Amino acid sequence: MKARTTKPKGFGIAAILAALLIAAIIVPSVGAQPVSEEVGPFSGAEMPEELKNAVRQVDPYTFVCGAHVPDKKAFVAAWEAYEEAARGEREGVGALRYEESGTDSATKNLLGSYIEGETYFHGIRTGLTGTKFTGDGHTKGWWWGDEPWTADKLQLDSVIVIRGLGDVSLSIPPGAGFSISGNTATYSGTWYDEWGAVHYYENLEATSLIAIVDEDQNDAETFRFGNEDHTLYTHVDLD
After folding, report:
1. Cβ contacts of residue 12 below 8 Å, gap of 6+?
2. The whole model's pTM is what?
3. Is the per-residue pLDDT at 155 higher than 60?
């Protein structure tokens, strides 16, 4: 798909208020684990308590939700409003050769409702000939039904490939859960009895002696109900 170029957005008061207003209708789930804002995609941006209390943070970059909330759509809308505000704090820093981002989503009707997967990929290429690429993004999976409330299993898979003229050196902070092989970063996470999962990453860095020429993120979002798996595929190509 053709990536959609976006302009960096500031930490808007309107976005924060939207998150708070929508999240105000959410009932916190008992036993949800607190969210750390010291590291990860939301570092430095205070998360509304209504969101904190309804999600479980499994590592600095991954959040899952199996909570019984009155309205899944309202919860996710509040989460994404906060996410967008926090993202605006990180993007657009430094001298750029170019900056691009893209989003892709897929859905499948299932059990009277539907499952949804999403890929977001953002990157900045710097250097006189674009020899360095710095990227961030996420993979999301949501089950929107209420019978059952959660999927038996929810799995997110990501493969990020950076191509250049000549060899590409690739790195990403270990807390994001990726493994690196050459110019490819691979992630896989699996959870049980959840209706939503989001995996973020940031500070992916790739360098090439001559130039970076292509960046791809290929994701899969798999939901299991009973003994049957249902997989969606989403993809963003920044070039």
Report:
1. 85, 88
2. 0.80
3. yes
